[in-house]
């Protein structure tokens, strides 16, 4: 079974939603039989590249708020993030053009490091305040998940993976996706946004049962005496 997730690396609810999905998979008993595919989405491709600007100014302008009102708004989001074990640091966060980040994630996926790269990019932006629009930062993050830095730099200085990134965005448009995170579960169910946890758990379980997946056993008690490989515990 496949779950597709459209998200952007500067979307605070995308990281929250990711953790909710991971928790739902863990509790479902089907996690090992479900593949999660992360798809690209650009909230604001016009954001300047290599900027080190705080997120407060652009957010205040976007929502026509004062800086103080903007900080209060982000504090509410930070409290929501704590519910899934994330400790956002909005004071350190920087605006970022995420086109290169998405391309890097696409490349990392082909190297077998897609999940690790996706998580590292979100962590870098929301928890560490790193400027994930900058090439030098992206190269360092790639190296941290075990990828070759020179190869990452060569890819980022080209136009590789732009087509794949924009293909994801076009599919989202066709699905009617207007915002992220957006989850498509087994091509049957859609979840828009970071919804209540029980909705993720119920939908994952329902889709898995309909797909005929075998639920992982919930083991009870400690391991007792047994025989295996022709040897029995007799002490």
From TrEMBL:
Give a single Pfam family match: DSBA
Residues covered by the DSBA-like thioredoxin domain: 3-204
Q: Which CDD domains match?
A: DsbA_FrnE
Alphabetical list of SUPFAM superfamilies matching this protein: Thioredoxin-like (SSF52833)
What the entry lists under InterPro entries is as follows: DSBA-like_thioredoxin_dom (IPR001853), Thioredoxin-like_sf (IPR036249)
What the entry lists under PANTHER family is as follows:
GLUTATHIONE S-TRANSFERASE KAPPA, THIOREDOXIN SUPERFAMILY PROTEIN
Q: What is this protein called?
A: DsbA family oxidoreductase
Origin organism of this chain?
Lysinibacillus louembei
